[in-house]
Each structure stands twice: as structure tokens, then as C-alpha cells.
Amino acid sequence: MISKFQKSLVCCALVTFTLLLTTTALASEFVRVKKDGVNIRSGAGTDKEILWEVFKDFPLEVVKHDKNWIQTTDFEGDQGWIYKSLVDKEKRVIVKVNTANMRIGPSKNYELVATVKYGVVFTPLEKEGEWIKVRHEDGTIGWIFGTLLWPSNPL
Q1: Deepest in the core among 1, 45, 89, 122, taking most CB within 10 A?
Q2: pTM
Q3: 3-class SS of residue 146
Q4: Higher pLDDT among residues 24 and 39, named by residue
């Protein structure tokens, strides 16, 4: 027989698990900036302080929606607000380490295509294991280990 205490523990565990799933689902919304020179602000409004400027295709994680504004976090953990019409849901990833090797296939055993630097943005194309196939805007295509990118699981 299950005691009231055990029933309470099971109930609390289920509620916690549900909240974690909901939080994880909400935290996984990403957008990309649609044009160069877009301001990230300290709050939801053009009267708020400009914190920094981002470039076209820069990926951002959505934290919160507020009417026509979105609170976001970037790959360095910085938060700010951006006007909703300046972003869309096209997938982008950014290199989050000083240098990353881009290879012709999804393994360290494949030949290098390029060495890419911190802050370079790519379009993710497909995933195989923990490797992400990406395309740079100059047309270069290759595979980068997912943990070297942000977000690391874009597809």
C-alpha cells in the first residue's frame, strides 16, 4: 500500500517533470536577425538603451515575448530585447569556440575543409550523430562537431 507521503512525492515529481519539459520546450525557440545593424535594447521599446548591435543571420534564443518585442539571449549569454519584425525562424548556428575544424564528413577521420573562427555564422543543413552539416554564406559546406556550435542541436 502507498502512503500519503509517497503519493505526495510522486505527485511533486510529476509536477516538477512537467515544468522541466515545459521550460525546456520554451527555451528551445531560436530566431535569426534578418538584416545588418539591428539594435539589441535594454527593454521592450525604442526609448530603451541600445546595448549592442547585431548583424544579419545572428542567432538568438527567445526568452520571452512582449507584444511586438522579444527578450533574447545570445551565444555568450547576454540578454536584450529586439523588435519582433526584425527576426524570423530560419535556423542559424554560430561558432562558440576560438577555432573549429570544418570537415568533409561527420567524423574526425575526414579531411579538413576549413578552420573557422569564433563568431562565424552558418546555416545548419543536417545532423548525423553529434555532427552538424553547415553551409557558410560564401557557399562553403562541411561538418562541424555540434558542441562547438550554438545552438548545438539546431535541427
Answers
A1: 122
A2: 0.80
A3: helix
A4: 39
